[in-house]
């Protein structure tokens, strides 16, 4: 429901990260691509536009509902080379050496067993193919500091459970080590600061973060009802510090990493 409600503003906010990951992937015409944890379709849809009609993009996600949104988005763009497949990244339903490229935007942090999942991605890639991943940088950055950081300041306790830590690959070299342990070589990793801009008011920006930030639900559920007005007020003030005209320009620190089979 949140993905549908906020699809346009969410797509704009994540656009720079999508563009950066697509360029990092360096897709070539005719490539067979798998986009893992594709959600509502990016970067798979952008990659489908780049590989052309002779190439294909298979978008994989656990959520059938999100993949249905992705399929509709692709249909609106007349992308006949984009298809969806509900699947678990730990057990991909494809033969060995099927794809020329794998992409994953903000998905690797959610894998229950990152090592197993990356090995499975490597299995379905052809020799010499690349896996290209985007993960969140440190939690101490504007978007998270102004939203879940404000909540944590008021509630205290654990911000994220250890198995739900979406910042687990923020430490330099951690995603490199995960790729190398999965058997990838020629690994590259860098941190980039990219645009992360919300077009709308602070109230909407916080509501969106609250709606889609699944790993933070235990934190949010600890908030006493009487504390919500203060938390919302403080979050709105913090968010508005990044307002420029009609936009809230947070910026985002993102880890990009790739490995070759």
How would you describe this structure to a colleague?
The chain has 261 residues and is an alpha/beta fold. The chain has twelve helices and ten strands. Strands 3-2-1-4-5-10-6 form a seven-stranded mixed beta sheet, with helices on both faces. It has a three-stranded antiparallel beta sheet with strand order 7-9-8. Strand 4 (99-105), helix 6 (114-123) and strand 5 (125-136) form a beta-alpha-beta unit.
Defining traits:
261 residues, alpha/beta, seven-stranded mixed beta sheet, three-stranded antiparallel beta sheet
- Number of helical segments with 4 or more residues: 12
Averaged pLDDT, please?
94
**Fraction in beta strands:** 15-25%
Poorly predicted runs of 5 or more residues: none
The residue fraction in helices comes out at: 25-40%
**Structure classification:** alpha/beta
Biggest sheet layout: 7 strands, mixed
CATH topology: Rossmann fold
| Beginning-to-end CA distance, first to last residue | 37 Å
Adjacency order of strands in the biggest sheet: 3-2-1-4-5-10-6
Question: What is the 3D shape?
Answer: globular
Oligomer: single chain
User: What is the N-to-C succession of helices and strands?
Assistant: HHHEHEHEEHEHHHEEHHHEEE
Text of the CATH class: Alpha Beta
The CATH homologous superfamily is named Vaccinia Virus protein VP39
């Amino acid at each position: 429901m949140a993905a549908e409600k906020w699809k346009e503003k969410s797509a704009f906010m994540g656009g720079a990260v999508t563009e950066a990951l697509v360029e990092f992937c360096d897709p070539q015409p005719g490539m067979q691509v798998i986009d893992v944890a594709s959600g509502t379709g990016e970067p798979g849809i952008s990659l489908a536009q780049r590989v052309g009609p002779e190439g294909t993009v298979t978008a994989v996600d656990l959520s059938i509902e999100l993949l249905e949104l992705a399929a509709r988005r692709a249909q609106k763009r007349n992308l006949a080379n984009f298809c969806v497949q509900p699947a678990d990244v730990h057990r991909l339903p494809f033969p060995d050496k099927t794809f020329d490229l794998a992409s994953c935007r903000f998905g690797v942090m959610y894998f229950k067993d990152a090592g197993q999942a990356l090995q499975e991605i490597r299995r379905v890639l052809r020799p010499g193919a690349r896996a290209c991943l985007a993960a969140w940088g440190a939690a101490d950055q504007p978007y998270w500091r102004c939203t879940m950081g404000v909540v944590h300041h008021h509630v205290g306790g654990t911000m994220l459970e250890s198995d739900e830590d979406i910042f687990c690959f923020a430490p330099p070299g951690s995603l490199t080590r995960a790729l190398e342990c999965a058997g990838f070589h020629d690994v590259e990793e860098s941190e980039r600061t990219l645009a992360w801009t919300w077009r709308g008011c602070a109230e909407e920006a916080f509501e969106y973060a609250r709606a889609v930030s699944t790993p933070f639900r235990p934190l949010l559920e600890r908030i006493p009802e009487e504390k919500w007005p203060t938390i919302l007020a403080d979050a709105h003030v913090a968010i508005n510090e990044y307002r420029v005209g009609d936009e809230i320009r947070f910026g985002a620190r993102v880890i990009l990493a790739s490995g070759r089979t």
